[in-house]
Specification:
heterodimer, A: 224 residues, mainly alpha, Arp2/3 complex 21 kDa subunit ARPC3, 9 helices, B: Rossmann fold, 3 domains
Chain lengths: 224, 874
């Protein structure tokens, strides 16, 4: 375990010579996750578990009467549950980050006792893959608000088309299935996409993301 | 711990065998180490060169911001874990880079916790470096023994006091038998009794191991006799003094003290003189009003004569009077403001990710406590950790609700309050509470409510509609007093811990509350900033505010007029104490007040909150294996996590094959028939089932409503199809222990170890993050920022709390990453292990057996899932 006469310290910041890029990728190689990447993604997921609990406690009871009577309306809230995937992907910026974050968040829900049981894991995989696809389409080099919106939309599409159409809304008429899908896509775009993107940017401005590309973007745009 | 005992005959252990160095500590050579984080102009460490001889013990001192903790992280090789920047120079430990040779203990023991059980937590380091299982456990045992840990390996880590958690963290470091032990302010978060026990454990354990020791401490007095060298860092990250303790101290004690370091044999600091007007209540309460209460004549002394509102606020250093003149003990205090009437608090742990399938813990946090706060007095709430100080102070600030009894606002406070009954303060509207109360929680970093420091201090004044100019002037003067003027435009999250605590104090007093409740206001303060904090406390009291302090700080306790001593949730002494004086010129290494302030014969008692086993009253809430002892508890309780999870998932896959009502009824009938065998006998856990049953109802209804033909059978079929997998799945996964699932995923399914380990460690934080959420909500309430009950109001609240929680989460994740990397979290990654040696493969302290019951469970799951396929079509 020894490496005589060396230091293991090398500056690990990517793109330090480049002028304030708006879309800073994670360190190369992309698949080499740092420890802090994994721990942060997992912790974000658990924090979102707490947020879901708060959402369920303070907001959902008010909405639930409306949504129980007319579920497509409830699907307008789908984006809240897609946030971990989008935020995880936008913060860590490595392949698999969105999937990992969403999957851990789903585990929190499952262990806490939820209304879907282990099916929530299946949903998480589909939602996470939706975000992964969007980020991969831009080769993990673009993380602007439009990419985030696409990620939110694809997550909603994967969830609804590959799962909910066949389980929870299987008997809907085709028109209602389409309306249901559109509601989910709008929610994914607005809450998870735009909302997630602004959330990451706001977090970066507090310095809480300094160890990650969004934090470095903020710092470099300040220093120029 | 004997360093050699477990080192013989372990050819499989590739990494931990360092026999050549085991007998002694490591030699540390730091040469020209410079570190400048990106985004900062000035380096934090500037050309540090040090040679630390093997086996020596070094105390690292210096004012806040001199780079002490940074240097420690550099020695541990984890500087770049959470920060990016330019690092030059080198650190060599026994001639090589850091590895198992180096152990780092971080400041807050909570950041080091990775497991639910004590033994598993200590095992983290050995697991990371690939030690075989049998050796892991002997290591764990000897490490726990070496720190004198009082509980066994199975003790839950959630039921530890701060001191116990810190000793556990030390054991976790020592389990790797490091030759260089690095300690970052190991006792700063602890009460004096616990700190003494931890110090003892550190001294013994490090002495026994023979390791080299480098530690950072603010309070030098307890350590100077235990170390043989003192290295002083100056602002800017340079070594300003270095040498044997006594000689170095003699040379630099005065300059260190002037820079704020708590140096032994230098007189205690005095509260800063702060104009009373800065702290005066806005509402006229009692006779004193904003002009100061009756206490001023005798004891206010010099501080009372400073004209309010002036520029004198800034920079007055030290007081002229002795501490003896500052205690308002002679004053008849003003009218009664708040009274807690026989309050009890019973805490039931929130439903947690990790304990969902265990009986929930019920804690009696307070038992029939009575307390009163009057205008113009300072009450210190004291007692060991876990005695209920924070609980009582939260009640007195109106941010928490007693289980029994009530906390009333009295007389002058009640004017204009619109609650019913009007005197119960926890029922008050957020704005009403904010106008009358100020509160600083123990976790002051969670008190941030705005984007800039100045905006944060002003936010409650603005919310209450106070005059903007006057409020602004007061806020600026408070920032000046508390040494935060230069940071007025900064984001509060960039502040250090000590700065955030002072900011929280400024925010709590700026709008002129009548009652000021402070939970540990002096933690993390150096001599200079301590004087400012104490000055604000004294000025508030003299201005007629009722001040409540929960504190371990003997100097602060000495300022109080009265104390309430708690122990295990009860008051043991609430007498007026006319002593409260430090003998003038008292210069003692050990604080003379420590003994008197904590009149506890047995420090162990009260450190652990009394845990009551749940009675039947509570166990109905949570499905528990133990709740059904003596009865058949079901196949599920004999199955491992993997088979339970797989059985749940295959049911989801079977559901689409249910295409008619008859099939649905047969399939669900099969499930019901198997339920007693799988789940055991007993009442179904309705509470867990309720959300799932609600889902089934909602799915049935909506599929009926929105289907083409609106046939009842269509809705029923849709509902039953969902019920087929949701109901069993909810019940099966409630039997899964998340930690065990991690072990199985890593060993049975061979998933990559690091993500699994990170996820399990994070799941253990769920409860803590839930408490953070609650605390953030309390802060918003007492600052007047709680939005209304309307939907937009609630949405705003949830959004603000989410943002605050995520910031806290990210910071905690960073600290966790440092602690975990220091224990080898990424040791098994090829890129991070040094060239030439094969990366160790992570081992697992717990086995992941697949038993017959697992096979049966999975087979049953597959059979039931296949039922829809084999029901004969009619």
């Amino acid at each position: 375990m020894t490496e005589p006469g060396s230091t293991r310290f090398t500056p690990q910041t990517p793109g330090t010579s480049r002028p304030a890029p708006a879309n800073m990728p994670a360190t190369r190689p992309l698949m080499r996750w740092r420890g802090v990447d994994l721990i942060t993604a997992a912790m974000l997921a658990v924090a979102f578990g707490v947020v879901f609990w708060g959402f369920d406690t303070f907001i959902y009871p008010i909405l639930s009467t409306a949504t129980a009577g007319f579920p497509p309306l409830g699907e307008l809230m789908l984006g809240v549950w897609l946030l971990p995937a989008v935020v995880g992907g936008l913060v860590i910026r490595r392949p698999g980050a969105a999937l990992f974050t969403e999957l851990v968040a789903a585990n929190v829900e499952m262990f806490l006792g939820n209304k879907w049981g282990a099916a929530v894991l299946l949903s998480a995989v589909l939602q996470g893959l939706g975000v992964e696809l969007a980020l991969a389409l831009f080769r993990h080099r673009r993380f602007g608000v439009l990419v985030a919106v696409l990620a939110g939309v694809l997550a909603a599409v994967f969830e609804i088309v590959f799962y909910e159409w066949h389980s929870y809304v299987a008997a809907y008429s085709s028109a209602w299935k389409a309306i249901y899908l559109v509601c989910g896509m709008v929610s994914g775009a607005v809450i998870a996409g735009v909302g997630g993107w602004f959330l990451v940017r706001a977090l970066a401005r507090t310095g809480a993301l300094n160890a990650f590309p969004p934090g470095q973007e903020v710092r470099e745009s300040n220093s120029v | 711990m004997s360093p050699t005992q477990s080192e013989t005959g372990q050819p499989e252990s590739r990494v931990l065998v360092e026999t050549s160095h085991l007998a002694s500590g490591a030699l540390v050579e730091v040469s020209d180490l410079t570190w400048r984080p990106f985004g900062r102009r000035e380096p934090v460490l500037a050309g540090i060169t040090l040679r630390i001889e093997a086996g020596s013990r070094v105390l690292l001192a210096g004012p806040s911001g001199s780079g002490k903790s940074t240097l420690l992280r550099a020695l541990a090789g984890v500087l770049t874990t959470t920060e990016t920047g330019k690092l030059t120079g080198s650190v060599l430990v026994n001639g090589s880079a850091a590895g198992t040779l180096v152990g780092l203990m971080v400041q807050d023991p909570a950041d080091a916790l990775v497991a639910g059980q004590v033994g598993r937590d200590v095992a983290f380091g050995p697991e990371s470096f690939g030690m075989p299982r049998d050796q892991i456990w002997s290591r764990v045992r000897s490490a726990l023994a070496s720190v004198g840990f009082p509980y066994g390996e199975d003790h839950p880590t959630s039921a530890l006091s701060g001191g116990e958690a810190q000793r556990l963290a030390l054991a976790g470091v020592l389990a790797l038998t490091p030759r260089l032990v690095l300690l970052d302010e190991p006792t700063s978060m602890l009460d004096p009794d616990s700190a003494a026990v931890v110090r003892e454990a550190i001294i013994c354990a490090v002495h026994d191991s023979g390791a080299t020791l480098v530690m950072v401490e603010h309070q030098l007095c307890h350590w100077v006799d235990q170390v043989d060298r003192l290295v002083v860092l100056a602002p800017g990250g340079r070594v300003s003094a270095d040498g044997p303790v006594a000689a170095t101290l003699a040379r630099s004690a005065d300059s260190l003290a002037a820079q704020g370091v708590w140096v032994p044999d230098v007189a205690f600091p005095l509260p800063l003189e702060v104009p009373r007007a800065l702290c005066a209540p806005t509402l006229a309460v009692g006779s004193g009003g904003s002009g100061g209460s009756g206490g001023s004549g005798l004891s206010g002394g010099l501080s009372g004569s400073v004209s309010p509102g002036g520029s004198g606020a800034s920079g007055a250093s030290g007081g002229l009077s002795g501490l003896s003149g500052l205690s308002g003990l002679s004053a008849a205090s003003g009218p009664l403001l708040v009274a807690a009437e026989s309050v009890s608090v019973i805490r039931q742990a929130r439903r947690s990710v990790m304990s969902a399938n265990r009986p929930s813990t019920v804690t009696q946090a307070l038992l029939e406590v009575c307390a009163e706060v009057s205008a113009g007095e300072c009450v210190a709430v004291i007692g060991p950790s876990g005695a209920g100080k924070s609980t009582l102070t939260a009640l007195l600030a109106g941010v928490d609700e007693p289980t029994r009894g009530r906390v009333r606002g009295v007389g002058p406070l009640l004017a204009g309050v619109s609650a019913s009954p009007s005197e119960v303060i926890h029922r008050w509207a957020s704005r009403d509470l904010a106008a009358r109360f100020g509160w600083v929680p123990q976790q002051a970093e969670q008190a941030v409510v705005a984007r800039t420091v100045r905006g944060d201090v002003l936010s409650t004044s603005r919310r209450l509609g106070l005059n903007e100019d006057a409020a602004g002037a007061r806020a600026d003067a408070l920032l000046a007093v508390l040494g935060l003027s230069a940071l007025a435009g900064a984001d509060p999250h960039y502040l250090s811990g000590g700065e955030q605590r002072r900011l929280a104090l400024a925010g709590a007093i700026a709008h002129g509350p009548s009652v000021l409740v402070l939970d540990e206001p002096s933690v993390g303060q150096d001599r200079v900033t301590w004087a400012a904090v104490a000055g604000v406390v004294v000025a508030a009291r003299d201005a007629g505010v009722g001040v409540v302090l929960a504190t371990h700080d003997p100097l602060l306790i000495a300022l109080a007029d009265r104390r309430i001593t708690l122990r295990s949730g009860r008051i043991v002494d609430a007498s007026f104490d006319p002593r409260a004086q430090l003998p003038p010129g008292e210069r003692s290494a050990a604080s003379p007040l420590a003994g008197r302030a904590h009149p506890l014969a047995d420090p162990r008692e009260g450190v652990t909150p009394p845990h009551a086993r749940p009675s039947s009253l509570w166990s109905g809430l949570v499905f528990s294996r133990t709740g059904f002892t003596g009865r058949w508890t079901g196949l599920a309780s004999r199955s491992g996590p993997l088979s339970l999870l797989l059985a749940s998932i295959v049911l989801v896959l079977g559901a689409p094959f249910i295409i008619d009502l008859r099939t649905a009824l047969i399939a669900i009938g099969a499930e019901i028939a198997l339920a007693p065998m799988v789940l055991g006998l007993g009442r179904p856990p309705w509470r867990r089932l309720l959300p799932g049953l609600f889902t089934v109802a909602s799915v049935s209804f909506s599929n009926w409503l929105l289907s083409p033909g609106r046939e009842v059978s269509t809705g029923a079929l849709a509902g039953l199809r969902v019920a087929f997998f949701v109901v069993p799945s909810v019940l099966l996964v409630s039997r899964i222990d998340p930690s065990a699932l991690g072990d199985h995923l890593g060993q049975r399914l061979r998933l990559p170890a690091r993500p699994v380990v990170a996820a399990v460690a994070a799941l253990h934080r769920f409860e803590g993050l839930g408490k953070t959420w609650d605390q953030l909500a309390r802060v918003r309430r007492v600052r007047g920022l709680q939005a209304g009950r309307s939907l937009p109001g609630r949405a705003r609240s949830v959004a603000a709390l989410t943002f605050g929680l995520l910031i806290e989460t990210l910071r905690q994740a960073g600290r966790m990453a440092v602690a975990m990397e220091a224990r080898g979290f990424s040791a098994a990654v090829p890129s991070t292990s040094p060239a030439g040696s094969p990366a160790p493969r992570r081992t697992w302290a717990e086995p992941a057996p697949w038993l017959l019951s697992d096979s049966v469970m999975l087979a049953l799951g597959l059979m039931v899932a296949a039922v829809p396929l084999f029901v004969p079509r009619v």
